[in-house]
Structures are given as C-alpha cells and as structure tokens.
Amino acid sequence: DGSIWPIPISHSHAGSASRTRTVLKGPHAQFRANIDDSWLKLNAGQTGFFRVAYNESEWDLLKDAIATQSLEPVDRLGLQNDAYALVKAGHLPATVFLSLAEAFLGETDAIVWGDLAANLRSLESLLTGTPHLEAFHGYARGLFDKIAGDVGWDARPGEGHLDAVRRSVVIGRYGEYGDPGTLDEGQRRFNAHAKGAAVLPPDIRGVAFGLVAQVADRTTYDTLWRLEQEANLHEEKVRILGALTRAHDKVLLSDILQRSMSGDVRAQDTPLVIVQVANNTEGRDLAWAFVKENWDELNRRYGQGGFAIRRIVGVAAGFSSLGREAEVREFFETHPAASATRTVQQVLENISLNARWLDLNLNSVGRWLAERAG
Asked: Which residues fall within 8 angstroms of residue 332, CB to CB, at 6 or more apart?
C-alpha cells in the first residue's frame, strides 16, 4: 500500500562493550559503522522482526565471534537461525550454514543447542533419500561430539532445568546421528530399566527409549511394547509410542503403523504415531503409503475435527520431488479433505519448495561434505 515503516536497528561489533542503536527511515536509508575489518552483528539482542543477510566474508568474521563467545547467547542463536531461514528461502547457500554451524563446537547454552539441533534436523529431512545423507550424519556427529562428552548421561549436583534440556537434546541427537558409544550406553541403561534394576530418570528416559528403538530387533521392540502396555500414565505411553516410531527396521515401522489403528493405541494417539513415523528418515514413504491405504477410515475418524486430519495430511510435506508433488495432488483431488484444504495447498507448496531447494543446493552440499570427510 506504499507505507514505509521506520526500522529500529541495534548493532554490536568487535571491541565494543555496548550496542549502538539507530532508526532507518525512508525507502533507502543507510547508517555508518566504524568497524574496520572486524565483525559486525546487526539486530543485536534479536529485538527486531527481520532477518539479516550478510555476505560470505561477513559470515566468516561472525564465525570467530561465535567460536570465542564474544556475542551473547541470544545473538549466537539469532545468527544461526537467520542463516538457516535464509538457506530455506534460497537466499543463502546451504554450505554457508554448514560452515557456520562448526563455530558452535564450544557452545554451552541449552537454548542455542536446541535451536541449532532443530535446524540441523530440518536440513537432514531435506537430504533424506539423497546420496549425501550418511555424509551429513558423519558431519553432524562431529558437531555434537564435544558437547555430548561434556554433558554426559547423568545429572550433576546443582544442575537446573536447562541443563536437563541440553542433555536430552545433545545425547538424543548424537545417538540419532549414529554414534556407536551413545547407542551402546542407551541400550545398557534401557536393559537395566526394563528389568527394574535401575529406573531411567524421566528427563533422559525418552531419549534412551528412542535410541534403543532406532537399532531395535524384534525382541527389543516387543519389550518396548510391553512397557507401553504396563504403563499407567498416558504421558509414559506417549513417550514409548514416540520411541517406537524411531525404528530403522521397516518391518517394525510397518507393524507400529498397523497397530496404531488397532486397540493397542488410543484413537487420540493414532495421528501422533503416523506423523512421527513420517518424521523418521526411514519411515516417510511407509507413512504416506499407510495414509493412502487407510484414508477412508482416517477421514471418518478425524475429518470433522480439523487439527488431527491436518497433521495426517502434513506427512507428505517432507517430499522433495515434482513427481511426488503430482502424486500428492492427484490423491487429494480424488480423496478430498474438506477440513484440511488449506493444509493440502501448503503441503504441495512445501514439496515444490523442497524440490527447488535441492536443485539449488544438493550438488554443492555433497561436494562440501565430501571435502570435510576426505
């Protein structure tokens, strides 16, 4: 509508103990910062509602500010969050984000780790089904190696809630990316818990369950189901169901999908199982096939409620090829989801964006990961 909004901007730079504030007015406003060749962080304190795009040499300078923790945690968080948002939108090469993430090897803040881990998981989802997924897992293990060793599995005296959150995020991701020692320790602790010899603390229990399920054989899988059936609290049942969806064995994933529609799982938890199987790098295709096969019943159960059916429709959003987009479009044209029409549109748009992202980044990411591994 022609409106021009004033934009308050704060910035900090190397050698400065305070933030400088200014307001940009007009369509082409500028300000000067006397920084020589050192780093400059715009939107210091992350109080502005905008993203900041730097050029690649500026990102390199900011990596030093992150690594030395010259920036406050909120600004370290903001930098990687801006970088990943720009990557997803096609404004920044994914390799810049991958390189920036390596500056966080010495990071200690729980909230920063949580957000970085979420962005790495999103990137992993985009690489699912590509030849570079295993190389990405190796790269990601390198990011979590130091912090996982620092936090360990056991709480220490004087720890607070955020310490527990950080442990759960770090140990969980390190194991998810395939660290053998973490998977072995998760199995050892799970075995003791299942026998009643040493009960896992609630803050790490879901992590251990998930890591065990990830590499589970049929015996471990059945043990998890036994624990789920014996659990009295719904919270514990949901925790175990979520863990079961992490299996890499497709036979076991197919089994939990089938059981999700039976009396073994409460109807209110069926969408959770389907969605979390779809979030598993090994389960996306299985979950989508299951939704199509059981659409009439799923739509009958949840189609009038809105929220649940939207979550189920959303399992297709992780696909990243135009062929899949055409398949999903055709399915919902012949199987309408009246209460999820907008979600279907969003899913189709997301698939298209994922396909474009791969066209822009897949080859360069593959080369970058290969160079790091080689």
From this structure: 313, 344
Distance CA(104)–CA(102), nearest Å, equals: 5
Is 228:259 a contact under the CB 8 Å cutoff? no
Rg, Å, the chain Cα set: 23
The per-residue DSSP string of 217-264 comes to: -HHHHHHHHHHHHH--SHHHHHHHHHHHTT---HHHHHHHHHHTTSTT
How far is Cα 52 from Cα 55, in angstroms, rounded to an integer? 10
Sign of CA pseudo-dihedral 23, 25, 27, 33: negative
Residues forming a β-bridge with 20:
11
Q: List Cβ neighbours of 189 (8 Å cut-off, separation of 6 or more).
A: 153, 198, 200, 208
Six-digit token pair at 269?
A: 């938890």
Work out the pLDDT band at 32, boundaries 50, 70, 90.
confident
Residue 372 has pLDDT above 90, yes or no: no
Q: For 223-236, give one letter per residue: b (16+ CB within 10 A) or e.
A: bbbebbeeeeeeeb
DSSP letter (8 states) at residue 98 = H
Q: What whole-number distance in Å separates Cα of residue 134 and Cα of residue 123?
A: 13
Q: Across the beta sheet with 20-24, what order do the strands follow?
A: 20-24, 7-13, 40-42
Separation between Cα atoms, residue 81 and residue 303, nearest integer Å: 35
- HSE of 224, CA atoms in CB hemisphere, 13 A: 30
Spatial CA neighbour of 147 closest among 101, 182, 113, 188: 113
What is the model's pTM? 0.93
